[in-house]
Every structure is written in C-alpha cells, then in structure tokens.
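As described in the Methods, two query proteins were run sequentially through the folding procedure within a single session, without resetting any intermediate state between them. The first query and its resulting structure tokens are shown here.
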Amino acid sequence: MPFKFHSRGRRHIPRQKHRVTNWREYESALRNRGSLTIWFTDEAIANWKAQPRTTPGGQRHYSDLAIETALTLRAVFRLALRQSEGLIGSIMRMLNIDLPVPDHSTLSRRACGLKIHKAEKTRTAGALHLIIDSTGLKLRGAGEWLFEKHGTTKRRAWRKLHIGIDAESGEIVASDLTDKDVDDASHVEPLLEQLDVAPASFMADGAYDRIAVHDALIARNPHALFIVPPCKGVVPSPNAATSPTQRDQHVLDINAHGRSNWQKASGYNRRSKVEAHISRYKRVIGDTLKSRDDVRRVTEVAIAVKSLNRMRELGQAHFVRVV
C-alpha cells in the first residue's frame, strides 16, 4: 500500500540543528575574505604592463590579467566601473607600483568576451558527486519600486544562473548564464561539458526528471547514479518488475516506503548544499546583474563564481548534527 503523508505535510517535522566544529578557523577565514592584503608578483607586473599607444590619442592595450583583476575587485566589493578604476589606482599608489590603470570605458569594452583564467583545481582526488540547480538574477532597472507603485511586473526581467557543485568539496565546478525562458533540464548538457571528469552521481530536483538528462549522464559514465525524484503520480515502466531502471527503482521505493524515507536512503537531502551555494552567491555577490549586455553578463558571472571558489579555499565551516 503506498505511503500516505501526514495531513499537515512536512511542517510537523522539527528543523535539524547543527553545530560548527571549527569555528575559530572559520571565523578567521570570514575575516580574511574582506582583507585588502594585496600583492603583485613579478610575473603579474610583467603581464600587467600595457602596450604603448601606436597612434596619437590611441588607447592602451591591457592584458587579460589586468582587466580580470579590476573586474574581480568590482564583483567582490560591489563597485561600479568608475569606483573600480579608483580602487585599482589607490592600490597602485599604496604599493608604490608604477603601472597604468585601465579606465572604466576600457573595463566595460574588454569585459565583452573576456577569457577568464581558470584557477587550479582544488577538488580532492576521488569521485565527483554533482549537484545542479538554477536561480534567477535580476537585471538593472526599476524592480520592487515599480511593482509596489503600479502592481505590475511587466517591465521586470532577469536571467537564469545554472550552477553545479561538487558535493564533497563544495566547489562550483560548472556554471552558465542563460535567458530566463531556458528550461533547466535542457541545459544540463552544457554544464556536463565543463567537467574534467565524469560524475559518479548526479543529483537535482524534480525539474530534471527527463530521459535526456539521464541519457547524457549515462553516456559519460554508465555506472553513474541518477538521484532525481520522479514527479508525483508517476508509475513504473512495464519492465520494472524484471529489469527496472534507476527511475523505476525510485518510484518503487517511494511507493513502498514514502518520499521522506527515500530521500534519506538515497542521500537526496544533500541537494540542500547547492541551495546554500545559491544563497551565498546572492548574499556575497548580489542578486542583480550590473552589466547591460548579455556577453558582459556572462563574464560577470564567471568572475563571481571564481571569486566564491577562492573564498571557499580560505576556509569553510564543518558541521555536526546536534541530536
């Protein structure tokens, strides 16, 4: 007989409590995230220097390193382009470094299609357990005020951010920015193409319960676990009794033991980690895209993701459940 949920749903289940076990180290890491301790290596200075103007009144040509550094400070400290230009100039003066500073127009122009230098992989050796989710990022313009005054959201717009994290290390290993109308499941393939190794398991919410997503995962790793909850009311395939697929097994387990027990047994509860990463993105970077062009917005998101991964390397909290 299928399991029946309590009439009050999940609200009667008490909220889990956790305790941080490395609070001293984590507190130090949080302080270091706001530190302005910046230094320039000889290699960075050599790669920073702009080429001289070739024509009278012509613009300097800055390296990708210089542009990415300025845009990183802009993302981390939530600055406008002119303020980012001023911050870079003040840092140069404090360090007594004679380097040219890219102006705000150059930063805006070079952000279009900028190639972001990939940081060294910090993921520990072992299997990759991928968790994927998406969220919306608002565009600039009248938002909450327009809705409050006119009671309409017709002029509001946003873009969709897709991210995939490593469940073990917490590193964001894949990310992309698309239009708001792009279906979540249809964009799994581009995220998988960004991975260096095939995932040993794939975890996502019910929006990713598609045959195409399952096939794309199995094509990269035939033994990968596909942990996606099936939609409510689905039935197993006709061959479920003899040769059940992973989805058939999920349906059978949910019907036999209930959805909550299936989540515990399958480890689906770990999906909350990607939701925590999305919340961290919006709290640290913000929930609004500053750039006015989609190509520049892709660069903006790539730099933000790289910055969050760098912050995670400084230290992260370790939790234990309090019974």
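Immediately afterward, the second query was submitted; its sequence and tokens are:
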Amino acid sequence: MSEVALVPCESYEEETVYQAVRAGMALLGGMERFFQPGERILLKPNLLSKASPEKAVTTHPAVFGAAARLLREAGMERLTYGDSPGNPTVSPARAAQTGGLQAVAERYGVAAADFDHGTMVSFPQGKRTHSFYLCHGVQQADAVLNLPKMKTHALERITGAVKNLYGCVCGVKKAAGHVSFPDRMIFAEMLADLNLCVKPRLHILDGIVAMEGNGPSSGSPTPMKVLLFSADPVALDSVFAALVHLPPAAVPTCVAGAAAGVGSMAPEQICVLTQEGEMTVAQAAATYGCPGFDVDRSGSSHGKIERLMRLVPFIQTRPQVDLKRCVACGICQEACPVPGKAVHAGQGKKARYDYRKCIRCYCCQEMCPAKAISVHRGLVNRLLSGK
C-alpha cells in the first residue's frame, strides 16, 4: 500500500502551516524516515514564473519555510533549493525573489542551488528517453524533497508531484522537450522516466490555495485547504485528482507513472492517512474534495477518441488568444519550442498562430503573463469527448 498523508490547513499563516506540515510528516514517520544528517538535500518548489504568492502560481513560501524548518529541527544542515522557470526570460533567482522564497530560504540558511546551468545525464533504463539535461543543483544533491503546487494544466490536466520534476531540466531544454515528446501521453512517459532518474525521496503538495481553470499560470486561485504528503508521487497525484473529482485514469502522468513503476494509481493500493484515522481515496474525496473544481474532465487522456482528435485538424484542441487581453509582449513567441515558431507576437504586434506548425504543447498558454491565451475546444471536439 502507498501511503498519502492528508492534513487540512485553513490559511498560509506561518505557524498554522508549520503545525500542519509537522502533523503530516508525523503521520509518515517524520523527516528522519526520508533524510539523514550530512546529506545534501535539495528542496524543489514550483517556481514556474515570476509571480507573487497570492496568485497561486508557485509554491507558497509558508509551505517551503515549514519544510525547511522541520529539516533543520531534524538535524539536516546541508540544504539547498531551486527550480528552473518555464519562462526563458525569468531567472531562477528572480522567480524565487518574487515568489517570496528567497527571503525564507535566507532565514533558514537554505542556499540557492545552481539551476542556471546543467549537463546531460545518461539514463539508459528509461522507456521513453535515455538522457536528461539536468540542472547542476539537481546533480549535486544526495536527496530531493519535492514541493509541488496543486494546479490545473492544459496539457496534462493537473500538475502535481510527477509534473513538478520537469523543473529539474535546465532552462530552454524544457521547451525543446515538448518538440521531442509532442503528445500528452508521450510527454507523461518522459516525466515518468525523469522521476525514476531523479528519485525524490518525499513529496509535499501545497493545496491550501490551489489553481483551477486556465492553469498552470493563468487560472484562478481557489481554496482547497489541504496539504498532501507521500513518498509515492503517483499515489499523491491520484489523491489530488480524486479530491477534484477527476478520475486518476484520465491523468496522463498518473497512467504513465503507474505503468513505469514510479508509483501506484489504483485506489485499492493507496491508504490515505489523516489525524482522524485511515481513509480510502473515495472517503478522502467525499470529506475534503471539491466536485465543482474547474478542471478538464473530458473523455479519456489515452483513449481512441483523443487519438482521433489529434489526427483530424478541425476537431483538435488548440491555443486561442484573446486579443483584448494580449499586450503584445512576445513572451508566447519566445516560449514556443517549434522551429520557426507557431505563434508570432511582440514589437507592438499581438499574438497570431500558424496552427499548421502548432504541436499543442501549450507552452505559450503556460507562460502568458496577461492570461490572454486559453485552450479552445470546438463543438465537435466537445461532443466527441463528452464535454
């Protein structure tokens, strides 16, 4: 059985979060179960872009600080942190500063790891890929504590523990990965390999205020008031999916992760630990879940209908720009990984797409600072997918 601890938490007040994280770790056996004094421990938050904490784009500094404080109290002294933002114009340091993590890291003596540079790391046992261009900060760590944010995701439906590891890949190599793995299931299989390569010891999901709708950066903050803890990222993401009434079987990262042996997806293989006692996944969803959470529940992420929709252009999903919101900043063009670019903008010109080139990776939507890009599903698409 994979264990996922669930602790409710009402706010980001520092001491409230600390006590909740402490309670969650106690349910799993404490930090000492996962880390040893003397090890170089990397805290890996979600620092997708330059965003203030209240926008729910990044891991909240209160959650990051609580994890660092508990590690210090457990005798862990060699702590670092970092992430590689998806926006090529934003440095890891700038994202950490704007997100409030830099000040908290300085308070607890957590040094910034090198996420500006990286080298290729061989992973011959991978099923989808045999190498990763990993940041030096990841390679220099003995152990990784993953600190993802509970959010929706245009490509993978949700982003949690499994998806957050993509920030271990350095800089522009992340965008290039979408060209190499242009399908949501193929991309999820690559993420499964990445999780097996990096092997985080522990995952703590910040779901106190989550993001629904047009995630992972342009959605709406919404209170979920939970923290999830697990050594199994697939089980954790499966509980996350259940809490928002999304079948884990519709989440590509859960399906690919379970198939690759990263973790367990089946509810009968997951035990939810709470301070009130053990629960099934269904009981946790009934007690702590939100059936109205705005997430894509259309069809199956790996079924025949979706494969058909990828082959027929007029029923494919695609990114769509709201020209009233577009500020002609050009970030969507910079984020596009396609040679020759599938979207053009900047220098006073608003975004326009060449859908013949578009691979539906949604990097443009993910990085748009004006929340001007969303995923469009036409009528035929919605009828076929059951939404």
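Residues 316 and 370 are 24 Å apart (CA to CA). We note this only descriptively and draw no conclusion about the first query from it.
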